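Milestone M4 deliverable, item 7.
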Amino acid sequence: MNALNIGNLRVNLPVIQGGMGVAISLSGLASAVANAGGIGVISAVAIGMTEPDYMKNYREANKRALRKEIRKARSMTNGVLGVNLMIAVTDYEELFTVALEEKIDVIILGAGLPLKLPKYVADKGIENIHTKFITKVSSAKAAKVIFSYWAKNFNFIPDAVVVEGPMAGGHLGFKRDDLDGELVPLGDIVEETVAELKHFEKEFDKEVPVIAGGGIYSGTDMYEIMQRGAKGVKMGTRFVTTNECDASEKFKQTYIDCKEEDIKIIKSPVGLPGRAIRSNFMDKVNSGNPEPFKCYWKCLKSCDSKNVPYCIAQALHNASKGDMDKGFAFAGSKAYLATKIQPVSQVVMELKVEFYRKKYLEYLKNFLGQRFIPERINIPNVIPYINIRMA
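Output delivered:
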């Protein structure tokens, strides 16, 4: 399990914790993952809902809350921290500015094509900026569009790419029809993106690691996708059921209680499909009973607030606080595998054990050839190998 290198930033554990909003991944979870060696990520979307004056002054509340959470996380870790930004929110550039001012290590840009990166970043000279920029895409084509635009207009390119496949949780960068039937394998998208970026790596003389996300839950998943060219993984769902996750215990229990058939594709009020765990709230809305709300501002550019059945930001915030009757939980396709709430450190240990167990078995398979019979492998004998590798 090699370290993830993003420019001069070294991440010993090649795991980026997914930025989950609203108020699911804040300073608590981000700092714990950073302490475990990965990149801990604070979700900036509607982060100001944790502030008392959000309804009256949402822009200032969002900026204040983001700054507060970054500083709080910094007080709890010396590890690598990131901020996840949705380009689709109306105050995207303001939150982007706060993250830069706080010298966050990484900014992950998703929910749209970040073609309008604030010009002053380029004016300052990218070499003078501490922060690394990671774009999140769902296809090699989207990656090419972003890289081509940045190269032409700013004379620099993103430092890394997250490829998020159709098995991810939350809002998805796919059409509804693409999510029915057989899904495009994440490994295929990873390989296509790796190939697409080679030209830009050569032109700018820098390595651009591809990080895979969506349906990555175990160390075995990690090993398999990294064999397809990914240098790291992004994991959100696996970290929800941890002690340090900032969501309420009721929210976490929703993951533990759900079955595979409870995880559904929904139509979000913002016009995108999303993956979530079925709830009474969702059943009520789907049956034609809207949840009344008053929109004081348009926090998401694509939201038609006058014609949607509920406010998704409010529903997600309600859920994060444990009010599942007035909200729902976004979740990845493998959320049903959660069985307990445990510390982040234990999750990371399990990921490593699973990763090296898979690696060891693959080694035996290649070494033994036709003599390899998985059922005859004495798994306890794998543990010394794992311990040596982890040490």
